[in-house]
Each structure stands twice: as C-alpha cells, then as structure tokens.
C-alpha cells in the first residue's frame, strides 16, 4: 500500500523575505515590475514595509540615507536592465559616500545572458555593478539565498560601509525547496560590523603629536556622524578644548552654536592650524585635497579612518589611527591624561574668536537685508529662524547656491539631521533622501531645494503624498540653473541653456496630488508657510520666489567650472 506524504515547500520569494526579516530588516524601497512584483507583494503581506517610488534612482537614494541613519543596510529593489541601471546611480553614490545599502535586482538567466540570446531586459548586471559597488553577488540556487543575503549585509556595513549589489535571476525566485531545508539555510549575521581597535602605538603617536601642537584643529566628517559615537566625540572636543570644524553632514554632532565651533572662521583655521585631527573625514576635493593655498602654513595630520588605504591619499599623514571611529576616539580619550595634553594656547583661541566675530557680523549684515524680491540670504534667514524652534527636524539640502548658502546659514543642533549632496556634490538626492529620512526616523523632514536640483526627483512628490509623509519641500525658484537671466546669444526664441519657465508655480504640483501648496514672495510669507506646514505634519511644498538675478555660476565652485576663452 502506498502512502502519499505531502511535504511543505517554500520558494525563493519567501526565502528572500525570511532572510531579510531574520536580520532585522523591515523596510524595502523600490519600484515594481517583472520579475519582482510578487516579491514586493509578498514582503508587504509578511509584515515588511514596502515604499514604492516613481524612479529607481530615488528609491536607491532613500535606501542609502536610511542606511546612513540606522547603520543597517537600506534595501532597494528594482527590475532588471533599465531599472537596475537607474538604481545603479544611487548604488555608486552610496559607495562613494560610505552609506550601507543593498541594491537587489531581478535579472535574466545566466545561460541566456552569456550567449546574448536577446532575453527581455537582458543585461550582464553583475559585471556592470562590480566597479560601482563595494561588493557584488549573484544567487543561483534557492538554498544559497540565506548565505547571499548574509554576505551582502556584512559587506555593506563592515569596515568602511558601502553599496552592495545582489543579483537574483527570475528563475531563482520561483525555485522551490523543502520548507525545513529552506529554514535551515537562512543565516543570522553575527556582529556584522565588529569593532576594530587601533594599535596602542598609533594612539601614543597621535597623542604625542597633539601634545606638541600650538594651533590644533579637529575636523569632523560625516563618518564621525555615522559612527554614532556622539558622546565620546563631544568629550574629546570639550576635554581638549581644541576648536573643531564640522563638514556639512557632521553639523550637529555638537551644536553649531558651540563655543569651540570654528565654522565661521573656516578659511582661517584651515590655513593657520599646525596639527589637524581628521575624524571620519577624507582629504578629497571638499577639503582642497589637503594642500594648496586653502591649507596655508605647513601642518601635520592625525587621521582616524577604518580603511588603511585612505591614509596618504593626498598628503603625508604623520599619525594614522586605523580602526572604527568609536574605538579610536575612545582610545584618545583614555590617553589624554597620560599624555599630559593641555588646552590650546590662548593666543590661538583668541585669534579664532576674533575672526569668527568679524565674519558673523558680516553675515548678520547680509541676513538683515530685506530685498524685494527675496534673495538667498533673506529666504534662508526665515527658514533658519523657523528650524531653530524644531531642532529634531531632518534637513535635506541640495542645489548650487541653495546648498552653499544654506550650509553656512542654517544651524544644526542634533547629529545626523542634515543630509546633502555629499562627496560627489551631485544633484538629485533631494526627494529620495527626504522620503528615506521620514520613513526610518519617524521625524518630519524639510527639504530645501534649488529649482534645478528639484527637477531630478520632483515626481516623488506623488510618493510623499501617497504615503502621507511629513515632508515639506521648499523650492528656491529663480527661474533657472544658477540664475534665470541668461539670454540666447543668437537672439532666437529658444531659451538659454540655464533658463527655465518663468514664474513657474511648483506649489501647484503638490496640490495635484492632494498635498498643501504655498507661494511665498517675502520672508514673512515664507516664515508663515513653513510654520504652518510643519505644524500640519502633512505633505507640503513652498514655492519660494527668489530674485532671478541672485546666484552665481556653480555656487561657490567656480574654480571647478572651466570657462571658454573663445571670443567672437
């Protein structure tokens, strides 16, 4: 007599979801289509949060900033080929900025791709992703899904964080295996980002360099903010008495109003310091590569970084301190008394204070003006004053002039509350970062956008409204890229390359999706609109009308923009 014994099975779809959930990942950002639509449906059915976007690049940016905020890899899910390529831009940006993110894309089967047989959206995605990611993996068997996701998680968050690509061919998702076997194949990652302690001799070397410094400076990068070693970083700054300079996404590690903050004397301290401690900051173009007239007098560097290959990348580093930032800063703190490090000399601190006072007075004079129409300074003054009353709000900021002025005008009071264009200085991160920050932090977001920068991701206003997120977007509308006054040199009817539609009403866009729109032409109207929008906690957009003559070419980056010498 034959007995039919039914065996419970599972499939690739469920194994992917189970593996993510087992590792504490509860949110997916993405855009559905063949072959991953059912994966998104099942993830939602299994209790995961799926945030659907209108463009994969914006979903990827949301995942990246979610990873930065939480220290867990943000997940972006895309379809194959074009969808993958859209997400790849965000993946590359995440890797460059050291944000932990995993891009998961469906793909064609290997045998079809390798023979170039012309499958639907056929593309060799794994090899395309490799140069732009920290790591890239493909899973071909259902029983390997657990290992594949475990490897992706560990690669994304360990050492220097970054973007990871995970390739899931369509046939894999439909593969079935015995349910118990599938459950046993899952992996819970243990200690995915272990501490990396600095060598004792490297700590002593750094302390000796600091002890001999006459004009020390601490420079905080976004790596310092990502580390979430906030208390120890503050203790290092305050116990040593050393002035500090935060890079833009490190603003708020200590309040920008802190007495030791040297932001208002940035050029002076960079040029005059003799010993600079880099905490999670890289000497890339944002810091003039550590050389040239920006850095003035010769100086020595202490550099805290988890990647040994970052040391000496532009200039010689006298005291490299290799390890995770929390462990390195803690080791310096523990050695301060042993090394006998005193507070900096009064002459150095007095010189900084004098320079700060002068520059603050100059900025105050600019901010006190009330031109009609508004310029960047008067509009940002209004925003600054409102946000001062809401220190826990997430601020997203991008543009050319809009980014450069806001960075120096709007103060931050809490860590990991400012998100901007980052290491590449790219435009297009705005709405993706705003959505990602709102979803994982549970806090409101204000996105301050140049009108050009907003154009890269503006359709995500519908996403913001669909999920009813507390995001207020402010468009600095000056009718064009940099400014709206360029003219066609031929005298023809077509606009100049930098000019947009005159007097556009961006506030009408969000009203089309059910959000709240405001049109602000004065600082008073902008103040009222922003206060109301924050209080409402609903999707809102403020069209802030800026003088179209305001702004400069590439903001303050004119040195990077070659000008034509040709004359007619």
Automatic annotation (TrEMBL):
Keywords: Lyase, Magnesium, Metal-binding, Thiamine pyrophosphate. GO terms for biological process: fatty acid alpha-oxidation; oxalate catabolic process. Residues 408-543 form the Thiamine pyrophosphate enzyme TPP-binding domain. Residues 12-127 form the Thiamine pyrophosphate enzyme N-terminal TPP-binding domain. Residues 203-332 form the Thiamine pyrophosphate enzyme central domain. It comes from the Bacteria. Its cofactor is thiamine diphosphate. GO terms for molecular function: magnesium ion binding; oxalyl-CoA decarboxylase activity; thiamine pyrophosphate binding. The keyword Metal-binding applies. Belongs to the TPP enzyme family. This is Oxalyl-CoA decarboxylase.
